[in-house]
Each structure stands twice: as structure tokens, then as C-alpha cells.
Amino acid sequence: MKVGSDALAGIIFIVFGIGTVALGWGYGLGTMNQPGSGAMPVMAGAALALLGMAQMLKVRMEAGDPASYKPAFSVSEIRPLLVILAAVFAFATLILPTGLIPALIALIAIAWFAQKGGARWELFGAMILVVVVITAIFKFGLGLPLRLFAWGF
């Protein structure tokens, strides 16, 4: 099944809209006079899902016109997308048990494979630069309580 860029955008809007409504619903809607903390996320999520449904209706109406089809991704773009998603997932998974610096190193090392080519010295230079800058900003500049390593610091 081919999914065009317009259809993919509609699907993403619907999924994120429904997810936002589901999460916001748990916070409580409140009343019209005194809205609860979940009222705004529910309204925004519903609006996002409705926009996605409108997008899908547009796609359905243009389904017979082959000139309106635009592919969502070319085959060459899928590997970098999956590698970057894996890098972000690895960072999110590693930051609490291992600390900020090992999670950043894993993020950069995995994301490096999204591109073709590249010298090893560039990888190590990017690692050093990103680790120093992110640590300086978030740990020392903003004072966030991040562990740099799981074993201390």
C-alpha cells in the first residue's frame, strides 16, 4: 500500500490528536465556569484530530487523480529516518540508568550511521563538542539535576 505525504500527515494528525485527547481526559475537564486542567489539551487534541480527518477527506477526494500523489518518503530516506529514531530512543532509554554523558555518546554514535561516509575523527569531534556544550548548558548553566554518570559526579 502506498501512503502519500498528504495521507501520512493526516494520519499523524489523527494519532497525535487522539493521544492528546486521551491524555488530557485523565486530568479532568471541569465545568464551563471553571475548566479543569484537561480542558485545553482535550480541545487542542480534538481540533488536531479534526484537521487530520479533513486532510484524509481531501486525500480521499483526490484519490482518482494520479497527478496529486506525492510519495511520503523516497526509499533512500527511510534508513536515515529509522536510524535517527533509534538514536533518540537509545538516548531516552539510557539517560536515567547510565547518566547524561553515556546517553549523549550513544545518541551521537547511533545517529552517525544515518549519513553515508564520514571520517572517524569527525565522529569523535562531534561527540566531544556535543558532550561539552550540552553538559555546560544543562548541568552547569541551567543547573538541572542531571547525573553525568550513573556512578557519581
Automatic annotation (TrEMBL):
Residues passing through the membrane, by range: 7-27, 39-60, 81-114, 126-150
Ranges for domain DUF1468: 8-146
Q: Which domain of life is it from?
A: Bacteria
Query: Does Transmembrane show up as a keyword for this record?
Result: yes
Quote the protein name from its UniProt record: Tripartite tricarboxylate transporter TctB family protein
Q: Which UniProt keywords apply?
A: Membrane, Transmembrane, Transmembrane helix
Species whose genome carries this gene: Pelagibacterium nitratireducens
* Pfam hit, one: TctB
